[in-house]
Amino acid sequence: MNDPVADGLIHAFVIDDAGTINQLASDALDDWRGEQGTLWAHFDRSKPATGRWLRDRSGLDGMVREALLAEDTRPRVTIVGEGAVVILRGVNLNPGAQPDDMISLRMWVDRHRLLSMRFPKLAAVGDVRERLLAGDDLLTSGALLAGLAIAMTDRMAQVMANLRELLDDFEEQTVEGFRPSLLEALGPVRRQVIVLRRYLSPQRDALIQLTESTLTWLTQEDRARLREALDRTTRFVEDLDSLRDRFVYVQEEMMAWQSQQLNTTMYLLSIVSTVFLPLSFLTGVLGMNVAGLPGTEVWWAFGGVVIVMIAMALAEVGVLWWWGLIGRRG
Fold this sequence. Notes:
Elements: E1 9-15, E2 21-23, E3 38-44, H1 48-56, H2 62-69, E4 76-80, E5 83-90, E6 103-109, E7 113-118, H3 123-133, H4 141-176, H5 180-211, H6 220-286, H7 301-322
Parallel strand pairs: 3-7
Antiparallel strand pairs: 1-2, 1-3, 4-5, 5-6, 6-7
Helix pairs in contact: 3-4, 4-5, 4-6, 5-6, 6-7
Transmembrane segments: 264-286, 298-323
Pfam families: CorA
Family: Belongs to the CorA metal ion transporter (MIT) (TC 1.A.35) family.
């Protein structure tokens, strides 16, 4: 018997009308027939054997095979006869990965089978598999499809909650004042929001198309669960729009703090320059190495010049204070 992982097949289940679940080995997959029950076969898209099986033994149309094996895909639904190519995206919760690096789940669904493929591992698929083996009512291809859509929104809810919490922290820290590290930390999180929005918006459209499709094997219960996934996805898109606006506001507040600090620094430098410019002029004149400079032969000349410079500096500070430029306003 071939190793299911080595040849691209991760798992294959046949669910009959009585709810009995039988797991198929890879070498038994070709013997499956629709009258045996609903088939759910899940593949690793990165394995060359997956492409060979789809091409040689799946019986799928060439356009369908290309869609399932394409390198870069966006969420969409394409109706082909009594079946559909369904491509959805789920958050990447694998260790060391970023949630916004969303994983594409490509599926072919018809009345009797659901063929799904992913790379890398998608947690939502594992959730549905556990539910199936635990005895949940996932007896048809439509129920499996709806279950996968719901599981992907469940995982997405965790990521959305984390993003909202992060943004709340950013807003609290913004009130306390600007820190360069805060602005640096804001960039990657804002990128997550943008990327998630990029994929969830077409995913919402794909779910709308599924719920409104004329596929006869989708039951009312399946459509109701798909509408639930659609409602959640719509809410996620609206939340991401709100988060994006809030991130812009936080970033603008940080930039305003930074600009204010810069203006304060420039203002202080201007005050210092105003005070020392006349003194620099005086010392420049007295420092010229030419004949005729006063006081060069008088012992108290240096002390006198220092006293004059201190008096000038105090006078300038007094004038600046009187004008309200330092020490007071108004």
